Amino acid sequence: MDNVIAISIAVLCVVAILAAIILYLVAKKFKVEEDPRIDQVTELLPGANCGGCGFAGCRNFAESCVKSLEGKFCNVGGPDVMNKIAEILGGQVSAATPKVAVVRCAGSLDCRPKINNFEGAQSCAVVASTYGGETGCSFGCIGLGDCVEACSFGGVSINPITGLAQINESVCTACGACVKACPKGIIELRNKANKYRKVYVSCVNKDKGAVAKKACSSACIGCGKCAKVCTFEAITVENNVAYIDFNKCKMCRKCVEQCPTGAIKEENFPPRKPKEENPALNMPSQADKIPQNNNPEPTNIEVLDKNSEQLNNSKPM
Known about the structure:
Blueprint: H1 2-29, H2 37-44, H3 58-67, H4 78-89, E1 99-103, H5 124-130, H6 146-150, E2 156-158, E3 165-167, H7 177-181, E4 187-191, E5 198-201, H8 209-215, H9 225-229, E6 235-238, E7 241-244, H10 254-258, E8 264-267, H11 279-282, H12 286-289, H13 300-314
């Protein structure tokens, strides 16, 4: 009996050794050589795996960079990281326009009061898939913070006063995680202008004007006044809502003054200067320039009347 057990163990050991040898030879035969630069590039990347570059993760992005740097840019690492990657790979990085996330909804609790209360799972995705939301507007920010959880950099928070998502622009890396997390599609990546200045339509409500205005006092009613005043053709009105193309917008802000509901927002601009009165309106007219004679000379008729009066008084009684 002992011999049988010993023989079985020996056979199993031989089979295991043979299998190991075969696996080693197969691995050696079909071994895929990996470019060592992939590891070097991966070490330079921030490791956020946010997907803002359009790839599944940082390593996947590094593998693509090794093949070609054309069109590649890490929003989190920025130009400094990309320049270091270019030095390793011996290529050039095309400068990318910095971007920042923007929440296109101004439907605060004052503008968009609640009409019911949701007591289910506190998730924007759940609410969006279940029903329209707690307000009369089914397009606006739900405010339960899916975007907050998605952001790895603390760049998004929920304003306790307005109940809306807000972006910390100094922290935002434009990774796009919040954009993907928002089930309403109200968060957008826009070009980062000087001092974070921007002009945008803070509404995505596609209902007709009267319906949208009833649901939210700050909604875009699609009147088209903004598009008419824009000389750069940066504004279009489709599906009852206006949109400002940030690539064409010159931030003249004429559209802000024309919007009747305040749906177009201007942020981080200096206060507007008070409008000066037109000097031409305050200039005296030609009639005012004629000097006024307080003691006018008597006319011929007045002189004759006066002489006649003197003759009558000189006649004897």
